């Protein structure tokens, strides 16, 4: 690992990917990935995202519960959260094989875990819409990074989450977020949900950096997919720039 890389937090999703790649007997072939991808950021090499990784402090931590498939998806956005939030953790979910490290993390007294999930599926007394940002314990956001069907299954079949408050993002908060960011999709992706959680926890810089980083990632990812030239003069790049320490000139 080069010195330049070690200034960043370890990306727990990248670690999972590397471990699963080692375990696998046949090489994993990602869909539509004929062009070589950067091993560090997963984007096609000509549109590499690595020099745009933000450095920002946050008090909150994030714990991603993922499906095996999600770990390998080049479009997975949990990866971006792990790039931004220093205290990031990621586990592959299994109903029968619960990782003891996950149980250890959830019982670590420095953290107050919040399971992020829609409140309408949960007993109302467990639901909260706010985060205790200044308490002794730091917020740890548990995000189910999977399809909605899988997320519901994980939620139902993980009794070790039963004691934690459910952080449910309010519809008005969500629609304000969509307006502000002109997000067109009805469902927010995991990185957008994480940015909202960080904002609730008072980690506003980390929230802004993650939002901008997600936009920049989407641009690089889609431009590469459509074989368009990389454009680093977008509003998202400008927004992200203050959070990025550039060692080489990037802006033309
Ligand atoms: Zn890269």
TrEMBL record:
<dbReference type="Pfam" id="PF03942">
    <property type="entry name" value="DTW"/>
</dbReference>
<keyword id="KW-0819">tRNA processing</keyword>
<dbReference type="InterPro" id="IPR039262">
    <property type="entry name" value="DTWD2/TAPT"/>
</dbReference>
<protein>
    <recommendedName>
        <fullName>tRNA-uridine aminocarboxypropyltransferase</fullName>
        <ecNumber>2.5.1.25</ecNumber>
    </recommendedName>
</protein>
<feature type="domain" description="DTW">
    <location>
        <begin position="34"/>
        <end position="226"/>
    </location>
</feature>
<dbReference type="GO" id="GO:0008033">
    <property type="term" value="P:tRNA processing"/>
</dbReference>
<dbReference type="InterPro" id="IPR005636">
    <property type="entry name" value="DTW"/>
</dbReference>
<dbReference type="GO" id="GO:0016432">
    <property type="term" value="F:tRNA-uridine aminocarboxypropyltransferase activity"/>
</dbReference>
<keyword id="KW-0808">Transferase</keyword>
<keyword id="KW-0949">S-adenosyl-L-methionine</keyword>
